[in-house]
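User: Show me sequence and structure for the first protein, then do the same for the second.

Assistant: Starting with the first protein.
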Amino acid sequence: MTSRIGIIGGSGVYDPGAFDLERRVEMDTPYGKPSGPVLVGRMYGAEVAFIPRHGESHEHPPHKVPYHANIWAMKELGVDVIISPCAVGSLKEEYRPGELVLADQFIDFTKTREYTFFHGPKTVHISIADPFCAEINALFHQEAERLGIPTHLGGAYLCIEGPRFSTKAESRMYRNFAEIIGMTVVPECQLAREMGMCYCSLAMVTDYDVWKDHPVELSIVLKTMGENLHKVSRLLEAVLPKLSSRECGCASAAEQAGV
């Protein structure tokens, strides 16, 4: 089976009741092994390949996720759409915990990551002015409105290195630039673009970061995620069967760069 849709997400996103597993694929890539075995099967009628971003036992912190291996493995399996459910903090009052955000921009505040597949001798410059697939974002938003799931269409995702959370001073500064904050969209998003893939960040707001004078603790993040994962599942059920054809320009960015 050739998988077309890739989901890179946490273990909570993987629902055995909704996933008709056909095979577990242990893969090797030029960049090492992916975060875990690639689970290949059907989800809500669509062909899907799933990778647990942080590993099956959550062993890969954000700055150590094998992003290159994950994206390479998806490409090898024929995936051309990446859906990336993730948890984020909110930098704006109106982006409330429990709501979803379809990011349309990112700002990179990471420090130690490898950002590209292209290290020479060929120089490749990818256009990434609009890093997320607007067509897929619009489809998710349309279905979210139909289902009554509070979802923001658009918002800048500020990506920090992690694994620590922000200081109060950092959080107040970040509020000037973005709507949400997380640790995983870079370089995952731009690697997908280099491979000519569509990419959608389906972000769940779990907290208000620390600018709002509330502590950000892992227990709070996990609690909010657990209470709201059903929203992500309902959206995936509605959207995945409709992703078979698109007219976006995500793949052409790689072609125009000579990839």
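Switching to the second protein now.
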Amino acid sequence: MKTEKPVIGYTLGDQAGIGPEVIRAALQQVSPQAEYRLIGREVPCTPGLPTEQTAQAALEHLEVAAEALRSGMIDAVVTAPICKEALHRLGFAYPGQTEFFADRLGVKDFAMCLTGRHLTVALCTTHVAIADVPRLLRTEEIVRVGSLLARFLKRTGKARPRIALAGLNPHNGENGAFGSEEETLITPALNALRLAIPKAEFHGPCVPDCVYRDAAQGIYDGIVAPYHDQALIPLKLIDFDNAVNATIGLPRLRVSPDHGTAFGIAGKGIASAASTLRAFEVALSSVYRVD
């Protein structure tokens, strides 16, 4: 266990968005058990009016944050929202911050996880067409993501995490009537995870139209979801204001609020800091645990 205060870094994202104001508001409420350190610098801008300069600063600060994580200068980082479209115009070659941080830290085994106060979900497929999900879903990928989720939940305080593997098809395929992936892909993954990680509980395949309710009621600590919207629709319905996006699998956690730059409301004093505060809480909770 650490004998001094951990250092949680944070970036301001595209500073024409709501990042600076939600960061400021969250920092007024964070735990005094950590030191909070700005990564990068403030840049002059007008709220709601992004420019090439605000995008360039956001990109530069991501690079500095990744190096600080890699070197151990900080113990975790909270990244405020970026405008991916603007960064792509500057040559940012990644779908999002998840892939960027994994690449910069040299990590191949990582996944996208979203966690709120009621639901925690890890995704086996992310930004792909629904039609492609059955082809892309693999037993090995379910096992990989399930293993990462178990490590993340242990790292953030669950001594024996209870994890559900959500089914892909309606009614879990109804014994093959609506699909066979539960039998051919998910059940073998369940057996492999139980064998590989005996200090976690794995359940499934779980009927997808019930498992998220069960998790929200505390029956499960996390869910391995086969595709993006199956997980994100209930998460945003239940935890919209406090969900965060965590890159799991990194040696030190990177986490961000699960919302965008919101240029349209920047500077108006109406942006909620709840998700950003939750991001700081999750970042801090990861520091005192080991995989």
